[in-house]
Amino acid sequence: MRDPIADCFNLTDSKRNSMSFLNLESYCDVIQSNLFEGLPTCDFTPTQFLQVNQVVLATLIYPMSNPVLINEMFVSKMLRVGLHQMEKVVGGEDIQTKFQIYSAHDYTTAQHPLFMNADNGNFTDVPFASSMRYELHSTKDCTSESCFWVEVYFNDKAYEFSTICANPTKCTYEEFLELLDDRNFVHTETRYRDECATPFVKPFAASTPELAMKYLLYSKVA
Predict the structure, then answer these.
(1) Strands 171-172 and 148-154, how do they pair?
(2) Tens of pLDDT along 98-136?
């Protein structure tokens, strides 16, 4: 990607030759944003545009992918409040909350498909204005847990979980909780203090977000 990116952005030979991974990602991010806004962008082949998406995706998910507990705690903490509201509704409590919105960066959204690991959840990029939705549904006049179900969407694509849910796109409430446990949802009564303070052996040097980004910053593009 070094040469096509350099040609697209009219880079000097010095910038072309010293391009790091994060330099590359910043150019790829501009290309993605131009595509989203309908602005002129690089004259790339479909394969090169796929590589652009993969570069940005790697930057979004890599820092929280190893150790996997980082991703699990991150998503679990985000879901906790919404799950608590679902629990109230299923339990018959009349609450005012109808929906809960988190507005965040693309790296935040990217963690959810990684965590949920749906049957049809493979993705090559996180488009601008992406969203992840967890919807609680019920039949009319539902009065027991058995008539509630949960649907999960990534950019309006219904996720499927055939190994746990009898209806892959509509998990019963009980199946959905089982699904979360299967994905290693982090249950905690200490707001993650115990989990974050638990020592672990790093599998390799760049096993924290800070070290991972430092590694990307100083790595060179082949």
Answers:
(1) antiparallel
(2) 888 888 888 889 999 999 999 999 887 888 888 999 999
Q: Are residues 126 and 180 in the same domain?
A: yes
The two three-digit tokens of residue 100, written as one number: 């809960």
100 neighbors 85 (Cβ within 8 angstroms) = yes
Task: Tell whether omega for the bond before 127 is within 30 degrees of 0, i.e. cis.
Answer: no
Would you state the structure tokens that stand for residue 79, as one six-digit string?
């879901």
Domains of the chain: total: 2
Instruction: Report yes or no on 204 lying in a domain.
Output: no
Q: Are residues 133 and 214 in the same domain?
A: no
Closest CA to 42 of 81, 1, 83, 80: 1
List the domain range (segments joined by +) for residue 57. Answer: 2-63+209-218
Q: Is the pTM of this model over 0.85?
A: no
Rounded Cα–Cα distance for residues 200 and 68 (Å): 12
